[in-house]
Amino acid sequence: MHAGATEDAASGVAVCVLGTRFMVPRALTPVGVALVDKPAGPSSFAIVAALRRRTGARTGHTGTLDPFATGLLVLLSGAATRLAPCFVGLDKRYVTDVDLTATTSTGDPEGDVTGRHAAPPRSTVDSALGRLRGEVELPIPAASAVKVGGERAYKLARRGVDVEMPLRRSQVLALDVISYSGDASATSAVQLSLHVSSGTYVRSIAHALGGHCTTLRRTAVGPFDVSEAVPVDDVRLTSAAAALRRLPESVLGRVEAGIRAGVLAVEAEA
Q1: Phi-psi bin for 186: left (phi > 0), alpha (psi -120 to 50), beta?
Q2: Reduced to 3 states, what is the DSSP secondary structure of residue 133?
Q3: What are the catalytic residues?
Q4: pTM more than 0.90
Q5: Helix, strand, coil percent values for the chain (each to nearest 5)
Q6: Which of 49-58, 66-75, 86-95, 146-155 has the lowest mean pLDDT?
Q7: C-alpha to C-alpha distance for 86 and 252, rounded to whole angstroms
Q8: Among 211, 210, 204, 203, which residue's Cα sits nearest to residue 137?
Q9: What is the set of domains in the chain, with CATH numbers?
Q10: Is beta strand 20-25 parallel, antiparallel or unpaired with respect to 7-8?
Q11: Residue range 106-125: mean pLDDT, rounded
Q12: What is the number of helices (H) and of strands (E) in the chain?
């Protein structure tokens, strides 16, 4: 890429020739779905970029993970990016460890500690968990990409701007305790298994329990399990046709049949 040129992750690469800047569309092939096991540290966008560098194709995600989180990212390559609406709204499964003795500004270990308190009795934890099952409405974390007043919330948080975050309604389909730390009179931490609707912030659930997530691992997205995933450098694309066959009929209609057929035709010809 020439000096001064910039990259557009969605549509292509900006190239400068004789002072004229124009976009070269990214390749529509290879076509497929990548199941990536994200490590802690890099952003989801860094993982997308790593796959894009390997394939040279346009690449997109179907839902991000915070840098501290690990687990399943479902990425789309080439023409399969046109199928994103079929994947974006799938429910998700997580395992998280929650410190019940402190809250942080981000709901995770990367934020500043905003409060410390004694470990609650196990009965208090269990009662709070009961209120968080089913349909819940919780504030979106300040350290999120949601726009507030036209600006990303995390950018406002970095500047120390105090804003009232909007509530988000979601479904907690399952919320089960894997283990407790401490004893019945003082439960310092809890490990949870969650099955939630798309768009649910696990950090908000941890905050509602009076704590913050210390770990977070996404174990499934719809029918796709993290046991099928590998590091991005080792990933092999699953065919778009095979991935679509695993989705419930109810989500396939989010993309017109003609577009789906077009994607599969590009895949078959590649």
Answers
A1: beta
A2: coil
A3: 66
A4: no
A5: 30, 35, 35
A6: 146-155
A7: 6
A8: 204
A9: 29-90+224-269 (3.30.70.580), 92-221 (3.30.2350.10)
A10: unpaired
A11: 94
A12: 8, 16
